[in-house]
Amino acid sequence: MKNKKLIFTAGFALFAMFFGAGNLIFPPTIGFQNGDKWFYAMLGFMVTGVCFPILGTLASAKAGGTIQNLCKPLGKHFPNIYGALITLSIGPLLAIPRTAATTHEMSVVPIFGNINPFITSIIFFSITLYFVLSPSGVIDKIGNILTPLLLVILLTMLVKSIVSPIGPAINTGLTENIKNGFVGGYQTMDALGSVVMAVVVVNGLKSHGITDKKELYKTCKGVGLVALVGLAIVYGGFVYIGSTAGTIASPDVSRVELLNLIAKNLLGNLGSIVLGLAVMLACLTTSIGLTATFGEFFSETFEGKVSYKTLVIICVAFSCIMSVLGVETIVAIAVPLLTIFYPMTLNLIIISFFDKYLNKGFYVGSLSFTLLWGIIEALETIKKPVTKILGERLGAMFVEISAVSNEFLKKFPLASTGFGWLIPAILLGIIGLFIYKSKKTESFETV
Question: What pLDDT score was predicted for residue 259?
């Protein structure tokens, strides 16, 4: 394949854009919670945290690089609405602010003390803005400058954990380990981000002169493979590291505290500094990638009426304000939104590879079910705030409805693996396919 250096540069950049705040704090927690069953939890995490993000990037690239093309069978308006909700969720509402909040809590406070988080955010997003103002250079700047530094630090921690483990992995008593890892992968937001983030990779490759559609998609597959290998090694390693921390942390330890404890036990007094640098680089690369994605998506959606530069400035300004909420608060807000959108997004990624054989009816039937599935699952995640709002009597009714609904979902095949929606979604899709059989949907342009 031509231009192997570009493939590795873009692959490292894609890895770094995915590997941000959530990707650093969640894998150790998954390992810690599942203890000696960490390997099974890791398998589940790999599905939603590695495979689907890469598949989502390739699906979007195959369709032309935009979510509008990916959702083409669903008409004109749905792709824009769905894409906007996803881009806002992985952008200034949740994921981008989380990168700055994590940097403050894990990089700044341990080294410089408890300074105002707003100061951290201003500096952090000023650096982000510098990197994203020129969209054509985002891939090169991340892949050639930031990612190599990040990988050296992460691999140092992984090697140390293998040579000198913190302790033995203990039995935590947690069951459904594969599903725990599967659902835990939602928190990375990567599968959601992949379907809109592909535009940054595609445009980056185009800026290097790769414009032929077949060559572009072939190059994207090489880029995806590089990112997949990197993510699998780092994720697997950090899930393992978390499983060895059962003897040094209490069960109720926070994600941030757990990672700090791990770093100190592995690297001694330098642990906080090394971890802080890794967190800063990981969060910065993701912030840059997501901010560029926000600018690319909405400049395309608004058909150039609002410039890319104006959009990224708005994005970093809003993210700066949101970031002062702190990591745990932002994570708590993210959970219900992710629970709603993730099954539908995973389903969209899967069926997009079979678009030539499907029509609008299949898409509507299948995706509608997974949207409903996500809404029902989300009831469980919002029962505490909802019960406070509704009061004791109505709140108790809501909790009961939530419990019964989620218990019903557990009866579906594959529910224990996180894929309980898959078989019903296929069946409803087939029903929709025959209903709309006379209305064949134009398939994606195959590259």
Answer: 84
pLDDT higher than threshold 70 for residue 137: no
Residue pair 138/200 in contact (Cβ under 8 Å)? The answer is yes
Cβ contact 299:306 at 8 Å = yes
pLDDT at 135 over 80: no
Residue/partner pairs of 73-76 with CB below 8 Å, 24 or more apart = 73/355, 73/358, 73/359, 73/360, 73/363, 73/441, 73/442, 73/443, 74/360, 74/363, 74/364, 74/367, 75/360
* Tally of CB atoms within 10 A around 357: 9
What whole-number distance in Å separates Cα of residue 332 and Cα of residue 330? 5
Contact between residue 41 and residue 34 where contact means Cβ atoms under 8 Å apart: yes
Quick check: 84 and 178 in contact, CB under 8 A?
A: no
The CA-based angle 221-225-228, given to 5 degrees, is 130
Most confident of 45-49, 265-269, 363-367: 363-367
**3-state SS, residue 38:** helix
CB neighbour list of residue 192: distance below 8 Å, 6 or more residues apart: 86, 89, 90, 338, 341, 342, 345
d(CA 168, CA 244): 5
Integer Cα distance of 125 and 147 in angstroms: 18
Q: How far apart are CA 445 and CA 134, in angstroms?
A: 29
Tens of pLDDT, residue by residue over 396-417, are 777 778 888 878 888 888 887 7
Domain boundaries, the chain: 4-338, 354-447
Architecture of the CATH domain 4-338: Up-down Bundle (1.20)
Q: Do the Cβ atoms of 361 and 430 come closer than 8 Å?
A: no
- SS3 track for 258-309: HHHHHHHHHHHHHHHHHHHHHHHHHHHHHHHHHHHHHHHHHHHHCCCCCCHH
Q: How confident is the model at residue 445 (pLDDT cuts 50, 70, 90)?
A: very low
Give pTM, 2 decimals.
0.77
pLDDT, one tens digit per residue, over 323-361 is 887 666 766 776 787 778 888 888 998 998 888 888 889
Q: 215: which 2 tokens?
A: 């060559």
